[in-house]
Specification:
Length: 132
Amino acid sequence: MGNRAVLSFDTADNAPAIYLHWNGGRASVQGFIDAARALGLRHAPTAAAQTEALDQLAELLARHYFRCNVGITVYRLHYAGTDRDNGDNGTYLLGHDLTIIDRLYKPRGDEINPAKTAAIIEQITASAPAFN
């Protein structure tokens, strides 16, 4: 069990994706991507840029939120290798500007908690370096 979610720019089998075993609710995911954008992670219009952006986001979350390495709680996979219809939070589709543009396999309503989102942003940005 967990509070699982997948983040990806695309649903193609070989699209880069992040699988989160914990903290996959909307308030957490929103905090994660808002913190990444605040630290300078930006535009991902090409396949190569999307791969790099998700690599950087996974590393950011693993080190500065979960205090672990990628491969423990935060996994970088191809979309086909993720548990996208996971019974928890499903899949978040991201736009090229690192915003949530859609949700797939969402079995329940969105977790909207501005205080939780703000606390996550604060925690990550307080310890993480800015992206170059």
